[in-house]
UniProtKB/TrEMBL annotation:
Residues 1-65 form the NfeD integral membrane domain. Coiled coil: none annotated. Keywords: Membrane, Transmembrane, Transmembrane helix. GO terms for cellular component: plasma membrane. The keyword Kinase does not apply. The chain crosses the membrane at residues 7-28, 48-65. It is found in: Membrane. Residues 99-154 form the NfeD-like C-terminal domain. It is a multi-pass membrane protein. InterPro entries: Membrane_assoc_protease (IPR052165), NA-bd_OB-fold (IPR012340), NfeD-like_C (IPR002810), NfeD_membrane (IPR056739). This is Uncharacterized protein. Pfam families: NfeD (PF01957), NfeD_membrane (PF24961).
Amino acid sequence: MEIFVIPGFGVAGVSGIILIISGLTLAMVGNTGLSMPDSDYSPMARSFAMVSISILLALVGSFYLSSKIVRVKVAGSTIGLSEELRSSDGYSASEMSYKDLIGKTGVALTILRPAGKIEIDNEQYDATAQIGYIEKGEQIKVVAYENMQLIVRKG
């Protein structure tokens, strides 16, 4: 909610961080209320040091783990984003190749209700049916390319 009311970090963000650190520090001091002895602030300093070190270690650990998560493998597959988007997997870098498909015919590889996979010239593409559903194996025709999506109809 705060992000919509106060769009900048500014005063609210800085005061929030200060209050969180103060709250964590004061929660660790063994006193009743705010009755601190006038001369002995060592429990407060010790608590503040523990909170500061904990926050620092959490930040360092987060950065370290976020850099390593791409390389973590579980059951032979990498957890995280893949670094390689191959054209053999259906990825394409050019919009022009899709616009060139308008008017071509192909076959539905999955049921399009309304979205699914199609094949044109031995290449797989994601597509959306213009009207209704198209069953798997039916002939299709590309009629448009809108909003990064091929639009097809029975053909």
